[in-house]
Amino acid sequence: MAASPLLDITLPKPIVIPTLHLTCLYTCMLGIDYVLLRYQNRLAISKQMLQLGMTVTHGLVPLAIVSPFQPSNVAFAAVPWFIASYSAYLPTERFSLKEWIKALYGTIVDHSPLANKSTSNATLGLWKSFRGITKLTILYFGIEPLLPTMPDDMLRYKWLSSESLKDTFLFGLKAYLVLGIVDVTTGLAQAMTGWRMVDMFDSPLLSTRYVYI
Q: pLDDT per residue over 26-48, tens digit each?
């Protein structure tokens, strides 16, 4: 017999806007973050309160406003939060806009030596993008059809039942494959700039790394 969920709360549906519009929104938010951190000594609130406000804002916006493209929602939830939190611990008040961007970009540039020096960074970037596209293809054509149409029903499964274990595994695999969008974007950036990007699962993008250029 299916168990009742411990909490049965209906959350309001998020506002859905085009991906391009959401990109512009987050770009403006990050620009405001930079200005606030750059001139934080002139604000009437403490640095800790400013950091708390930025954390809450970047935590709530992805819940309230989303795009129709699911992989981009994962990126919008993680990347702006990472940039804001990392910027808060940088000496942003001493950075020009160019220096701030270079410091952020340095966190995802791989400075380790190449094992195979005969292959250019641009070619490796294209391969990385192809790998990301492969992950997204497997997600949409292989995993999505196997997922339950009503995910809320998972809350009624018995602990360690076959349905619970199967769907939990599939949703975990979906979360991994959705991050293929990171491979696509970093691969394209690597192909265009010639700078080798860190692989997310070799050195997670959200880990704390202080790299100054």
A: 999 989 999 999 998 888 888 88
